[in-house]
Amino acid sequence: MNQNSYLPPLDSDRDPKPSNQQQKATRLRRHLQNRSRRGSRTRDATSDPLPPATATATAMEVRPHTARSLVGRLRGAAAACDAAATAAAVAAIRLASKDDPAIRAPLAEAGAVPLLAAQLPAAAGVDAAAALLNISISAREQVASAPGLLDALTAALRTGAAHHAAATVHSLLCAEAHRAAIGARRPLLAALVALLRAPPSTRATKDALKALFAVALYPPNRATLVSLGAVQALFALVITDPRHGIVEDATAVVAQVAGCAESLEAFRWVSGVRILLDLVDPGGAETARARENAAAALLNLVVAGGDPAVAEVLAVGGAEETVRELAEDSAATPRGKAKAEALLRALEGAARRREHRLADFLNGLVQSDPYISSPASASTHG
C-alpha cells in the first residue's frame, strides 16, 4: 500500500467539486495560516534589534575602544617613521572626528591631540589641523591644555593648513578663559595678522578675521594687535578686498581694536576715520552690517581716545551730518542707529564743550585787556 494513503487527503483530492461551505472553510483556514506565518516573521524581525537605551550604551562603549584603536594606529605609525601609514592614520582620525561628534572627546582622552599637533608641520598637516579643529569643538579644554599645541598652530598658520589652524585658534578662543593666554602669544597673533596680507585665500582670511575678532574681545589684547600692524592690514582689506563678506568681517575687527587708546595714532596713519565715515555715509558700504560696524568703530575710538579722537572725527568735513543721517535712517539696523545716536551725542557734546572753552578764553582776554570786545558784547556800527 502506498504510504501516502495514510495521510489525510486534501479537500480537493477528496471532493473534486466541494460545496460552497467547504470552499469558504478552506479559504478561511488558509487565511489564518498565512496570518500566523506573517506574525511569526514579524516577531522574529522585531526581536533582533536592541532596545534604544541598550543600543546607545553599546555605542558609548564602542567609541572609546575605536578611539584608542585609531590613536594607537597613529602612535605606532609615527614611532615607526612610516610617513604613508602616519598620513593614513591621521586621515582616519579626521574622518572619524568629522562623521561622529561623539567620538571627539574619546579621541582627546586617548591622547590624539599631541600626536596630531606633532603632524602639523608634516605632509599630513592639513588633515591633522582639520582633525584638531573637529576635536576642539567638543573637547576644547583638552585641546587647549595640550603641551606645545599653540606653538604648533603658530607654525601651521604659515603653511597650507593655515585655514584649519586659524579656525582651531578661533574655536579655542570661544572659551573666554583662553583669550588672555592666547593673546600673550605674540608670534601667534603676528601669524594671524600676516594671513590678512597673504595671497588671497578667502577661507584663510575669514578664519583669521574670526580669530582676531575673538582675540580683540579681551581688551588688553587690543594694544598688542595695534603694535603688530593689525590696523594697517585691516584697513587694507576694507579698501581693496572685493571678496564677499571680507569687508564686514574686517570692520567688525576694526571696531574691537578701536577700543584702546593706542589705536588713534594707527588710525591717523591710514586715514582710518575718513574711511569709516565714508562707510557710514549712505551708499558708502555694500551692506548694512559693514555700515553698522563702521559706526561702532568710530564710537569705540571716541570713547577710548577721548577729546583727541573726537577732534579727529570732527576734523573730517560733514562728519556730524553723516552720523546724523545714519541715526535717522529708518532703513538702518537698530544696532547701527543706536551706535550712530551715541556717537552723535559724543560729537555734539564735544562741540559744545569746545564752544564753551572758546567763549571762556575770549572772556578771559576781555577781562585782561579792556581794548578787546567780547563777541557777546560787540556791536556793529554803521
UniProtKB/TrEMBL annotation:
- In this chain, composition skew of type Basic residues spans 26-40
Highest taxon of source: Eukaryota
Q: Does the keyword Nucleus apply?
A: no
Which keywords label this protein? Ubl conjugation pathway
Among its keywords, does the record have Lipid metabolism? no
Segment Disordered: which positions?
A: 1-63
Which residues does the UniProt record annotate as the domain U-box?
77-345
Protein name (database record): U-box domain-containing protein
The organism's taxonomy opens as: Eukaryota, Viridiplantae, Streptophyta, Embryophyta, Tracheophyta
